[in-house]
Design a protein that fits this description.
- With about 220 residues, the chain is an all-alpha fold.
- About 80% of the residues lie in helices and about 0% in strands.
- The chain contains 9 helices and no strands.
- Helix 3 packs across helix 6.
- The longest helix has about 55 residues.
- The radius of gyration is 31 Å and the shape is rod-shaped.
Length: about 220
């Protein structure tokens, strides 16, 4: 939620508070009562929407989790690649040698897409040459762990895109709800309150005061004297 949107929400909450404090003055005004209930429902929906939006847009721990997963994948891929490289050298298989010629440092510093591609190819090659690699002590468990690390890493590659999509959806819901609430205020509640300007000046003044949107983020600090 932006500062401007938050300021509008605060204004609506203040406006509802004034309406609640003077509820007895319009108890027989069904139209005003209905409009007040409609605004309250919209305001109630705004708070959880904003929290969900913020949670989706700010996944603070995602970077750290992804870094750890990347390191694990680099480590698992390097262990299997070392066995592949030794086997390729023995067989004088230049192509396999090239596919397996990676250090852990190289894999950690590679891009996400490159790491996933390289690790997948290492797993594929190790599976194809598994019988030969067993002579070096390579086990099926090592290949299983490499595949699990790769799957986990690829899943986390998708997570930021999903979070971004969720944030966009929440932004759209938030904006729609705010527009509906502002329209209700301007087109109904503000008009209904005009009739209370003369008979109930205190109520009217309090309402007008609450209706003023104050965006504190836009206030400029006075220069120091």
């Amino acid at each position: 939620m932006t500062d401007k949107q938050r300021a509008r929400l605060t204004m609506m909450q203040a406006t509802l508070a004034v309406l609640d404090q003077h509820a007895e003055l319009y108890a027989t005004n069904k139209a005003l009562g209905t409009a007040r209930a409609g605004l309250a429902a919209l305001v109630q929906n705004l708070d959880p929407t904003a929290e969900t939006q913020q949670g989706a847009a700010n996944p603070h721990s995602a970077g750290a989790v992804k870094k750890a997963t990347k390191q694990l994948l680099a480590q698992r891929a390097t262990e299997v690649a070392a066995a592949l490289l030794a086997y390729a050298d023995e067989q004088q298989d230049i192509r396999l040698h090239t596919d397996a010629d990676y250090t852990e440092r190289q894999l950690r510093r590679s891009t996400d897409n490159d790491l996933a591609r390289i690790a997948k190819n290492i797993h594929t090659q190790a599976t194809a040459h598994f019988t030969a690699l067993q002579e070096q002590g390579v086990t099926q468990q090592e290949l299983t762990e490499l595949k699990a690390a790769l799957d986990a890493f690829q899943a986390e590659q998708v997570a930021p895109r999903a979070a971004t999509a969720d944030a966009k959806a929440q932004n759209k819901v938030l904006a729609t709800t705010l527009r509906a609430a502002m329209a209700l205020l301007r087109n109904r509640l503000d008009k209904f309150l005009v009739r209370y300007q003369r008979p109930q000046p205190q109520f009217y003044t309090a309402y007008q005061s609450a209706r003023q949107t104050i965006n504190t983020a836009q206030r400029r600090q006075k220069p120091a004297v």
